[in-house]
Structures are given as C-alpha cells and as structure tokens.
Amino acid sequence: MEIKSVVTALAALAQESRLAIFRLLVQTGPEGLSAGKISETLGIPPSSLSFHMKELAHADLVSSRQESRYVIYSANFRTMNELLGFLTENCCSGKPCKPTATSDCAGIEETQA
Amino acid sequence: MEIKSVVTALAALAQESRLAIFRLLVQTGPEGLSAGKISETLGIPPSSLSFHMKELAHADLVSSRQESRYVIYSANFRTMNELLGFLTENCCSGKPCKPTATSDCAGIEETQA
DNA sequence: TCCATGGTTCAAAGATTATAGAAATATAAA
DNA sequence: TTTATATTTCTATAATCTTTGAACCATGGA
Asked: What is the pLDDT of residue B97?
C-alpha cells in the first residue's frame, strides 16, 4: 500500500462521524446499509453524511451500489486489511512483526475485489 | 481504547510528515532520536517539526526525554498496539477477529509504561 | 559570565476540512 | 405525468490544521 493511500485512509477514519460510519458498516457486513439508514442511525444530516461518504469512498474504505432508489454502502474489508497490514509492518515494531496480524482478518467477508 | 483517543491517534498519523516521523522512530526503537536528527533526516524545519512532535505526543504516540541539551523522542509501541487492537476488533470484521493481531507486536520493545 | 547550540513558542498567513440548509437529480409509485 | 422519496450537489460559513521565520528559553562549554 502506498504512503499516500495510507495517509488518505487514516485521514478518512480520523474523524468521529466517519469512524462511526465505518464501524457501523463493518458490523453490518457485505449486505451494507442505505445512506438514509446510516443517516438516521447516527443522527447525521443527509448532506453531511453524503460529504463523509464521499471521503470514505475516496479512500476506498467503502463501496456503494444503487439498489432501486436507495444507495447502499458497504465496508471494504480488503482496504482496511491492507491498512492494518501496513501499520503492523511499518509502525509496530520496525522490523516487521509479520508472523501474524497482516492477513488474519482477510478473506473473511470480502465483498468486491 | 476510547473513541476520542482513537480519533486523536489516527489524526496524528494521518499526515505525511508525521507518519514519516513515526515510522522513523519505530525503526529506531526505544533509544529514540533527537529532534535535530529527525529534523535533518526528514528535511523538516525545526519549528515545523516541533509542531508535529507536539501533535504526536498529544496522541501519546511518542514520548520525549531530555538528555543533556538534546530532546530525544521515541515511539510509544504500547499506544500503537492499542490502536491496532481497536482497529482490528472494531473495524476489521465486525465480530472481532481476535485470534491474533491485537497483541502480536506488544512487549517486543516497550519503553515506558 | 558570555557564547554557541538545540529546541520550543509565537504569530501570521494560507490551506484544508466540516457543517448543513437549500436546490437539484433520480427513481419509482400513484 | 404528477407526486413522494432518497440522495447528492451547491453554497456559504465556520472551524481546524499546516507552515515557517523570528524571537525566546535551556543547557553546556569557553
């Protein structure tokens, strides 16, 4: 994972609303949630939510699909795992503590490649 | 780890200079590096560096100690591991993928508690 | 004590990000 | 086609973050 992407992903998660959104989507799994449902659940006004979703999507941490008149968002587990891999290898003990962490959670619920 | 602390830590790392600084300190290990050395190595002006170090220290990602007339900074592995633990448990697969990740790198080079 | 070196704080300017109502767009039901 | 619903884009404002020179403080050697 490139440094720029890492910084972008970290920045996307470094905001209370967005971290909450992402956690909610992770809990929900691949089926995802509509924008309205997220908005309602977390009490974030639609236009603000849209702003944050764009940020998360830009960091490739979430994907969206249109479903009838709803837009469904879901977490990108792959990206999150790549981020965790980078942090573990580069920001944990210097010499990569590879043995485990990096790919533990990968492949559990991969939605889209 | 509290949400606020998580957001603070993520924000501290979500900036190119600071991520570079932190990575450098992780590589260096508990012995740490002086402000001047970091400044020189990464080509960051002293006053800018000081600003970023304060940010990292506030997130408890680094500690500093005075050593003669130098200020030595070192990475806080403990905090980084806590952050990784939070992200793994809350932002990886929803139901925590505990088996590994969380504490793999802990205890390798813990400097100060 | 005086000077040199290492670092931080101050201050001011610029850049980026966040917030949220209002308007616009899209889908689908009546 | 009109209407209602779901979501995004636009716009303006506010807030926060970044950058860095200059001034200041601390430590140690001459």
From this structure: 41
Interface mutation target, options B52, B105, B108, chain A, most CBs of A under 10 Å: B105
Half-sphere exposure of A81 (CA within 13 A, CB side): 20
DSSP per residue, A77-105: HHHHHHHHHHHHHHHTSSS--TTSGGGSS
Per the DSSP assignment, residues forming a β-bridge with A66 are: A71
Q: Which residues of chain A have pLDDT under 70?
A: 94-113
Write phi, then psi, for B64 (nearest 5 degrees).
-130, 150
Interface test with B, best of A2, A28, A104 (most B CBs within 10 A): A104
Domains and CATH numbers, chain B: 3-87 (1.10.10.10)
Which residues in chain A have Cβ-Cβ distances shorter than 8 Å to B13? 10, 14, 91
Q: Do B93 and A77 touch (CB under 8 A)?
A: yes
- A16-25, A91-100, B15-24, B66-75: range with lowest mean pLDDT: A91-100
Say how many C-beta atoms besides its own lie within 10 A of residue B91's C-beta. Answer: 24
Contact A23 B90 (CB under 8 A): yes
| Cα gap A69→B5, rounded to integer Å | 38
Residue B30 pLDDT more than 50? yes
Q: Do A97 and B108 touch (CB under 8 A)?
A: yes
